[in-house]
Specification:
Layout lengths: L3 H15 L1 E5 L10 H12 L2 E8 L3 H8 L6 E6 L8 H15 L3 E5 L2 H14 L3 E10 L2 E6 L4 E6 L5 E5 L15 E4 L30 E5 L9 H11 L2 E4 L1 H5 L20 E5 L5 H7 L4 E6 L6 H4 L2 E4 L2 H11 L1
Parallel strand pairs: 1-2, 1-4, 2-3, 3-9, 4-8, 5-8, 10-11, 10-12, 12-13, 13-14
Antiparallel strand pairs: 5-6, 6-7
Helix pairs in contact: 4-5, 6-10
The chain binds flavin-adenine dinucleotide.
The site of flavin-adenine dinucleotide has 26 residues, from helix 7, helix 8 and helix 10.
């Protein structure tokens, strides 16, 4: 007979064996979006076998890239014109068919516009609660997420048989795309073209700057900049630091910059090595999107501005003087 301790060990290793996770890869057919690697890291924390579903039009390169990541046992590939534009209406039936065939215990996607559009739909079809934007994994059933705009941290135990989860990329390190050799197989066949939507075209912003959510350095501006033209000061500084440029919602609402630059509760969540907040007061909704940055620098003329409470380095100064000075010294 086994001792209780040994029995528990055997039981937990059997549980891990029965556990299996499906990650829905985010990619542009040619390459994975970096956040897929962070999602893989969350899946590995959950434990058990990890498979990745790569659906697209000619997505061979993306599938091959993820098959090389350590810990990926299988990559399921679905290629069809139905997946043009990666609409949730066409991807949902594919995810459901894949789930029917393999019975995963966990289905994960990044908490990006892609994952946020797809997984609640999948969860509804599976009649389970989606678990959104997790920032930590305690065990296979217990997850950590923030509530009240990041002011409280919640630990939740999920009782649903299938856990459908979106993952906050900045909360998990990226898993390298090396060291593994997952089998590449075909995903279940089917007719996935949706009658509800048709993808027509897309116009993507072209920029030589790093993408905001994966940038190592970010220079961000708020209402204190006073106009869109004045953002040039930030672009000049960003060029010196190879940084992305972000903004507060007040700056976006005032029309200084487009809304894809917005950082915060209703914008993008970022966690770069360096975040320079210029003319931003530090409202909780803004902090919700950037307070996990490694080093926060604030430039604000008001010494009482709340941003100074979360900043590692603070400069009480007029930004119109301080920013050009800083740029010229770099
Ligand atoms: C539901 C909800 C969701 C929201 N989501 C977001 C979100 O996602 N992101 C977000 O950012 N906000 C969000 N907000 C808005 C948020 O509450 C604040 O209104 C906003 O963040 C303020 O932006 P700001 O700091 O640029 O502007 P202000 O609060 O007006 O601050 C401007 C700062 O600039 C400083 N300043 C002015 N002139 C100078 C100068 N010459 N030199 C130096 N400093 C100067 C001032 O001292 C001040 O601190 C949300 C609000 C709600 C209700």
């Amino acid at each position: 007979m086994f001792s209780p301790c040994t029995r528990n060990l055997i039981l937990s290793s059997q549980l891990r064996r029965f556990q299996s996770t499906l990650i829905i890869a985010e990619h542009n057919n040619e390459a994975l979006t970096a956040v897929t690697q962070n999602t893989l890291s969350a899946a590995k924390k959950i434990g058990g076998e990890v498979s990745v579903l790569v659906a697209g039009t000619k997505c061979g390169p993306a599938a091959e890239a993820i098959s090389k990541a350590g810990g990926v046992s299988k990559v399921l590939v679905a290629e069809s014109d139905a997946f043009k534009g990666f609409t949730p209406e066409s991807l949902t039936p594919l995810v459901l068919a894949t789930q029917k065939q393999f019975n995963f215990t966990h289905i994960l996607a990044p908490a990006t516009a892609f994952g946020k559009a797809l997984l609640p739909r999948v969860a509804a079809k599976l009649d389970v609660s989606p678990i959104t934007d997790i920032i930590g994994v305690k065990d296979a059933n217990t997850f950590i997420r923030t509530i009240y705009a990041g002011n409280a941290v919640l630990t939740l135990e999920a009782k649903d048989p299938i856990k459908v989860i979106t993952v906050r990329g900045t909360a998990f390190p990226p898993e390298p795309l090396e060291g593994g050799s997952g089998a590449v197989e075909k995903a279940p066949d089917g007719s996935y073209k949706s009658d509800l939507v048709e993808w027509v075209s897309q116009e993507l912003t072209k920029s030589d700057r790093p993408e905001l959510t994966s940038a190592k350095n970010i220079v961000s501006g708020g209402r204190g900049l006073k106009s869109g033209d004045n953002f040039k000061l930030l672009y000049d500084l960003a060029d010196k630091l190879n940084a992305a440029v972000g903004a507060s919602r007040a700056a976006v609402d005032a029309g200084f910059v487009p809304n894809d630059l917005q950082i915060g509760q209703t914008g993008k969540i970022v966690a770069p090595n360096l975040y320079i907040a210029v003319g931003i007061s530090g409202a909780i909704q803004h902090l919700a999107g950037m307070k996990d940055s490694k080093t926060i620098v604030a430039i604000n003329k008001d010494p009482e501005a709340p941003i100074f409470q979360v900043s590692d380095l603070g400069l009480v100064a007029d930004l119109f003087k301080a920013v050009p000075e800083l740029t010229s010294k770099l």
